[in-house]
Amino acid sequence: MRLAPLTPHILALALTGLGAMSQSIPSVLLFTRTAGYRHDSIPTAVDALHRLAPSYVVSFSHSEDAALFSDDGLQGMDGVVFLHTTDDVLDSQQQDAFKRWLDKGGVLVGIHSASATLNHTQFYIDQIGATFDYHPELQPATILVLDSTHPSTSHLPGRWNVSEEVYNFKSDPRSLGATILLSVDESTYTDPSPREYVQGDPHPLAWYQERAAGAPAGRARSFYTSLGHLNETWEDEDFLEHVMKGIVWALESNTTLAYNSCASVGNGTASSGADSSSTSTSGGDASAPTQTDGSSAVPHRAQAAAVGGAILGAVLSTVF
Question: Which of 4, 8, 194, 205 has its CA 20 to 30 A from that of 176?
Answer without folding.
Answer: 194
